Amino acid sequence: MAMIEAFDVGAFFNSFMSLAVAFILGTAIGAERQYRQRSAGLRTNVLVAVGAAAFVDLAYLVADADGAARVISYVVSGIGFLGAGVIMKDGGDVRGLNTAATLWASAAVGCCAGADRVAEAFLVAVFIIAGNTLLRPLVKAIHRAPIDLEDAEANHEIYVITDAQHVSEVREQLILELNRARYPVADIKTEQLYGGVVEIIAFLVSTSVAPSELDKALGAIRLLDGVHRARREVSTVD
Fold this sequence. Notes:
The chain is an alpha+beta fold. The protein folds into 2 domains: about 10-145, no CATH class; about 155-235, ACT domain (Alpha-Beta Plaits, 2-Layer Sandwich), CATH 3.30.70. Helix content is about 60%, strand content about 20%. A 4-stranded antiparallel beta sheet has the order 4-5-3-6, covered by helices on one side. β1 and β2 (about 95) form a beta hairpin. α4 runs antiparallel to α5. The radius of gyration is 27 Å and the shape is elongated. It is a multi-pass membrane protein.
């Protein structure tokens, strides 16, 4: 039978070692993710690493190095679709990017193992785990640092609540005050709220602002007839 004729003990042992390395390193990466209670944890990372190793190893067996190189390129793009499934957008926040990147990197470990580059597979795994663990204190320190709105890039919105009969006047004056402060409006919309009041929302073109200048413009808006409240909000740039 062709199956028996194709069986080679040396090649089988080589495949076993490649998959075993992918399994061990995928377990190490996935264990850290599982400990952090991420959506793609231990089993997912192991399966990604072992699957990538299996595809590359099979390509080596049937098509040599050229075929393996093509399969690696397919694995890279294919894991991208898998990673997209764990990315979620919650309002202005995007969640799951680190999990998706870890899956993509686990596939790289598997590809190295499948290509018999065991040392490189271990090296990539070490850097992945280091990136997900050793860099956490640095990330927390950066997040706790005060934000300089004049240097940081962000989305800036102005919210003004006014009586329905003053909407047109307040809207025009809001655009005028923002232009006077040299913060042109990219878009502006209105939303009807309860109690006969309307919320005007202006989205600024600028991604960096001087808070004092915006506060001065908002101060002028608050003095207009019918205005109940005027505030600004900042959200990260996608």
